[in-house]
Specification:
With 578 residues, this protein is mainly β. 11% of the residues lie in helices and 36% in strands. It contains 7 helices and 35 strands. Strand 22 and strand 23 form a beta hairpin.
């Protein structure tokens, strides 16, 4: 049996002051939820026929509520009380049924502040532990243990989500948990099951050594080989190196230490290797972190347990305990993922669940049924954006894009641009300009990996060449390229005016290839110079005419020959022969 038992009634403190005895004696039920996947919560139900206990107890919104469990041997000894919950009051209510009138108070721990509002932001060159510290400061939450993470992310996006959703998905991706202890936010790996004492018997004195028929009133456990694997592989694409990145890990879990290991269970299954490629990962470090977290998450489904124990405030989410005298195969060490402490007319009981990395709450089950991936929020399909920066530090033609429809501040990471014929030192390079509207897509919907697919015209930025369409015929008759400065290449398919023209922005230099007339015209307001490294020949089936309004000269270092099969005419006001 455990070394210490606790009283059937908790002690309540409001803003550090113990609530009046009239409130304690009116307690019908107190339920405290401790969960690795949600803020801790407390629900107090009071018998209140006079509907006066809110006033008597001094309950009001945002007051600090602390709940402790006193030892049964000394229920009034404050020094020996163990704190079960500390948080702020967020809900006050009443209920009425066949048992009478009740007052209901609901409080959440300090992490509930992370649920206030949705936010869109970008973070650059940060680790996940940096993000937790930064956001805790924004939310006004004190921090405790923030385990340092090593992977530095070039860009992390928070897209229309609460701070809680943002941080918990970051934690899930690397196998960490976000929780509150002692009213301080912590970010760390969950406690491994091997921290628990070894399985004990009926005479065990450690409160974390549980036995059916001893501390455990109810206990169910299962071990399954279903969907277990021996190895997990994660694959991604490194566009800097133009090659895949791959990481593998053996299936193992720290949430349960039982005789049957996950990899052994998976060895008997066909296709005992799980490969994940549903998230864009660009570096080996990202792959390594992901594969470790995924291997843990899959392996943790091999074992699950639920139990009801004598009330003990030390059994909380994240605590490792052991269970013995189950017949051997189910003796082992387990990490609690959810604990529920219930004080009611039957006494004080603690219910606990071991579920590994899976959220078995109603919200978690609904998300799983909907196919939630647990990674970054997705932006499906394609979206418009405005180019904000084209000065790619790696000179790879990438751009950054604002998404004004999402947030005035949100800017993507460097987006690769789809260029026609792109390849090694080749392709059609027409980069977008700052403030251009572009069409943006994201690899597998993940905002960490943006791509610019094309530029877009709109009601402000009209296309060149009057849109290229002949309004009379409804045919596209003009195609081409015009730069920001106005230089252009234009191809005309108009009936009677088929031509290709290249011209500078002011038209001072123009080259025209005329299909209808079959001619070539080169025009310029300045000099024209033709150079040939070898011979230069000009041949015409008709006449050849060279004229100048100024002087003309013909010179050659190797001699000049003028020949004709007909007459040669030389005219001038004066002819000089030397």
């Amino acid at each position: 049996m455990a070394a210490e038992t606790y009283g059937a009634l908790p002690v309540l403190y409001l803003d550090s002051a113990r609530v009046p005895p009239a409130v304690i004696t009116a307690i019908r039920r107190v339920v405290i939820d401790s969960d690795l996947a949600a803020p801790d919560a407390c629900r107090v139900v009071l018998d209140d026929p006079g509907r006066e206990l809110l006033t008597v107890g001094g309950f009001d919104f945002h007051k600090t509520l602390r709940v402790t469990a006193p030892p049964a041997a000394d229920p009034t000894g404050a020094a020996a009380e163990t704190t079960l919950f500390e948080g702020r009051v967020y809900s006050l209510g009443i209920s009425y049924d066949e048992l009478g009138s009740h007052t209901v108070i609901v409080a959440f721990d300090s992490s509930y502040a992370l649920f206030n509002g949705v936010h869109t932001a970008t973070y650059h060159n940060v680790t996940d532990s940096d993000l937790v510290s930064m956001i805790a400061g924004k939310a006004g939450i004190e921090t405790g243990t923030i385990a340092a993470t090593s992977v530095v992310h070039d860009h992390v996006g928070q897209i229309s989500e609460t701070y809680w959703d943002f941080l918990t998905r970051r934690a899930r991706e690397i196998g960490y948990v976000l929780r509150v202890r002692g009213n301080r936010l912590e970010f760390d790996r969950p406690a491994p099951a091997d921290e628990a004492p070894g399985p004990g018997g009926f005479d065990s004195r450690d409160h974390l050594q549980l036995t059916p028929g001893g501390d455990l009133e109810v206990f169910t456990a299962r071990v399954t080989a279903a969907q277990q694997v021996t190895e997990v592989e994660v694959r991604g694409w490194d566009d800097r190196a133009k090659q895949e990145v791959v990481a593998t890990a053996r299936a193992r879990t720290s949430s349960a230490q039982l005789p049957d290991e996950p990899a052994t269970l998976g060895a008997g299954n066909a296709n005992a290797r799980f490969t994940a490629a549903a998230r864009p990962l660009a570096t080996q470090a990202e792959c390594d972190a992901m594969v470790a977290a995924l291997a843990e998450r899959i392996a943790s489904t091999s074992a699950a347990a639920e139990g009801v124990a004598h009330g003990d405030p030390r059994i909380l989410a994240g605590v490792a305990l052991s269970v013995g005298r189950t017949g051997g195969r189910f003796d082992g060490k387990l990490t609690v993922s959810h604990a529920e402490h219930v004080f009611d007319h039957s006494g004080y009981r603690t219910r606990f669940t071991v579920a590994g990395g899976h959220d078995r709450s109603l919200l978690g089950l609904v998300a799983a049924a909907g196919g939630a991936r647990g990674g970054n929020p997705t932006i499906p399909g394609v979206v418009p954006g405005i180019v904000s920066n084209i000065n790619d530090p790696e000179a790879r033609g990438r751009v950054r894009v604002r998404l004004p429809w999402l947030s005035a501040e949100y800017e993507t990471y460097w987006a690769r641009v789809a260029f026609a014929g792109a390849g090694p030192d080749r392709g059609l390079l027409i980069p977008p300009e700052v403030d251009d509207e572009v069409l943006v897509a994201f690899e597998q919907g993940d905002p960490r990996r943006p791509f610019v697919l094309a530029g877009l015209y709109n009601g402000v930025d009209a296309p060149p060449f009057e849109g290229g369409v002949d309004t009379a015929t409804g045919l596209a008759v003009r195609r081409g390229l015009r730069t920001r400065q106005g230089h252009e290449i234009m191809i005309s398919d108009a009936d009677g005016d088929e031509h290709v023209e290249i011209r500078t922005r002011d038209g001072r230099v123009r080259i025209r290839l005329d299909h209808d007339a079959g001619g070539l015209t080169v025009e310029t307001d300045s000099d024209v110079e033709i150079r040939a490294g070898g011979n230069l020949r000009m041949t015409a089936n008709g006449d050849l005419e060279i004229s100048a309004r100024g002087s003309a000269s013909l010179s050659a270092d190797g001699g000049v020959a003028v020949t004709s099969s007909a007459d040669v005419t030389v005219q001038g006001s004066q002819i000089k022969l030397n």
